[in-house]
Design a protein that fits this description.
Length: about 300
């Protein structure tokens, strides 16, 4: 059976009996199946990894489900970009990163407490994001202050003690306390940005410059640097002069979604996924990051 949205196809459907669904339609077409009088209509919902629902017959409540075997990358990319643009253009909202209201309030207030956001990004390494982004808040509780000046007074030994007692705040306390410490995290904010971490993204910098500034923090690699830039632009609505250098964060989750959507093979490397995203939407490759998370949720 062939056909599809204009400019897309051919499609091959693999049907099997199924029950009804509540899929949300974001595009559709009617197609007469070969050797029968049934008419089918597919619907795609982002959270279904390219699985489709088919209405069988007119006015009937029965369904069949199938999977599209071949989708053109340009059409899939268009849908991902559309979803990404919707999220990017949406009004700023409160981000519940840690699910701890007091911690999230500090992380969202990048005007008054920008160091919480930056230090949380530095800590986001080989640890669940919810735990990593709580570390600056937990240290602030131990020292009794949220001010950057109080953080800047800490020694590396004090930071290590705060991160290891009474419970470990990170899997790798020794190295991460160094990254948090003066010469790497707190120290760079103090010495290079005069104690104001918001200067990292002030002045509408280019995306390349913003990513580079995060890469200057020891322990921060391209994935975390582009993630930080993407969050600032997409969620906190920080203006940039362009978005070319904000790549997709090609972790296991993103690679799995790209494979299931047929954009990349299942064994695609991180580099392949990054460059595929660049080829699909060079103006802002990272725009597809959050839609992929929504798809796989």
């Amino acid at each position: 059976m062939g056909g599809g949205p204009e400019g897309v196809g051919p499609y091959t459907f693999d049907f099997f009996a199924g029950s009804g669904t509540n899929l949300k339609e974001i595009g559709g077409f009617y197609e007469k199946s070969e050797g029968s009088t049934l008419f089918t209509k597919w619907e795609l919902k982002a959270s279904c990894y390219g699985k489709f629902a088919f209405f069988v017959g007119e006015g009937q409540n029965r369904f069949q489900k199938g999977r599209v075997k071949a989708l053109r990358n340009d059409w899939i990319a268009k849908k991902l970009v559309e979803l990404g643009q919707d999220l990017f253009q949406a009004p700023k909202k409160f981000m519940e990163t840690t699910k701890v209201p007091e911690a999230d309030a500090l992380l969202n207030d990048i005007e008054n407490y920008p160091h919480f956001f930056v230090l949380a990004c530095v800590m986001d390494r080989q640890l669940r994001a919810e735990r990593a982004w709580l570390i600056p808040y937990k240290i602030s509780l131990k020292i009794g202050s949220t001010s950057f000046n109080a953080f800047s007074q800490l020694s590396q030994e004090e930071i290590r003690d705060h991160m290891s007692r009474p419970e470990s705040l990170h899997r790798f306390v020794e190295i991460m306390s160094k990254y948090f410490f003066l010469g790497m995290g707190i120290g760079r904010i103090r010495d290079q940005y005069q104690g104001d971490a918001s200067k990292i993204w002030a002045g509408k910098p280019s995306s390349a410059e913003l990513v580079y500034r995060f890469l200057e923090f020891e322990g921060v690699g391209p994935k975390i640097a582009t993630m930080a830039a993407n969050i600032l632009a997409r969620d906190y609505k920080v203006p940039l002069s362009d978005y070319f250098s904000i790549d997709i964060s090609a972790d296991v989750h993103i690679r799995r979604v790209f494979a299931r959507l047929g954009i990349c093979p299942e064994d695609a490397s991180v580099e392949q996924v990054i460059f595929k995203a660049r080829s699909l939407y060079p103006e802002f490759p990272g725009l597809m990051d959050l839609p992929c998370w929504e798809i796989g949720r």
